[in-house]
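EI: anyone free to look at a 446-residue chain?
SC: sure, send it
EI:
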Amino acid sequence: MGARCSKFSLCWWHSQLKPSILESSDLENAEKNEKNSLPSFTEFSLEELKAATSGFASENIVSEHGEKAPNVVYKGTLNTDRLIAIKRFNKSAWPDSRQFLEEARAVGNLRNDRLANLIGCCCEGNERLLVAEFMPNETLAKHLFHWETQPMKWGMRLRVALYLAQALEYCSSKGRALYHDLNAYRVLFDQDGDPRLSCFGLMKNSRDGKSYSTNLAFTPPEYLRTGRVTPESVVYSFGTLLLDLLSGKHIPPSHALDLIRGKNFLMLMDSCLEGHFSNDDGTELVRLASRCLQYEARERPNVKSLVTALVSLQKEIEVPSYVLMGIPQGTSSSAQSLSLTPVGEACLRVDLTAIHEILNKIGYKDDEGITNELSFEMWTNQVQEILNSKKHGDTAFRAKDFAAAIDCYTQLFGPSLLSHDMTELTSAAPAYIQSERRAKVEVADS
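SC: here you go
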């Protein structure tokens, strides 16, 4: 996990801080770097975006709730081979096309490496789409709440908090202080594992379908009274993100504040972090969260003071984010780096709609009659061997002996079976994945 902190190491760290992390020019340099590396804001045609997403194919959906999301996000590839994320709004989200274009252009003028920058939009007929940089390494919610290989390290959590505060400070300096519904799903990780703030939340008056009103326990008090988002509301939401980072869970602010007032802040802390942070650092981050969550908006800190406070807490500043995150540099997360086929990606997401659509396109035949193609002799001679291979493969997989598991599964799906119709295997795949996921959930809940 993260490094333990002694008094000696803290003294050394303060004396050895990188000047760039403290200088106010750091964000200006980040802005210049992004402007140099990204294309200027572009108004794309609907045909271009259809081509980039294979006609908005369901297998390219990367939204949290798939096709059920009120506004769907797709992964796409431009003809320049640049990966993009395309947010397609529902028909009622932006009735005023002029307002949509004005907002998109304003947000598209922002360029900073703390943001997943907006690089274009499309406004044709009733269609409203935003085009942003694609971030290949999942969301903060995935890494905090649904991690698979390792929990997020303390040093990385502190870095996430700082980078988000810097993103908000940059936006404020450019006259975009309002951010709508800041939460762990709005924080994305780029190819180097660095956290970035999604540009989509910077759009004003977006009937996003996932507003504060659907998350009342986490809503700034003044929003409940007035229905308006203010810069102080954004700071309140930042405080809820600090609680997420501290606890590894999505805790209602009222419950967290009760624990803090009772001086039981250690009960807030993620048990995975035990022994990997100093009490002083933990106390300071809890104090920052508490200040952000004050009921009276005027009592909350501004983002500039948050940046100053978080800079002083940074650990392992020489260690790249991809190392702290445990992911390869310059690539996507392990699940995506496999370069799965569309049906493979759909199975991984357990997206039954996409699987059905793909199988229909390739001439799917149902399972009836497939088993009859195998002779009785083949079944009697091979079935025990197949069952044994599967059993041994499953045992090796659960023990994380992947080399042995691959050998066993290779025997299971050998040439004699692969010569037959593969639709049976394809149709069974999501059920197997779903059963494995259900087993993980049951273990986690027990």
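EI: The chain has a mean pLDDT of 78.
SC: 👍
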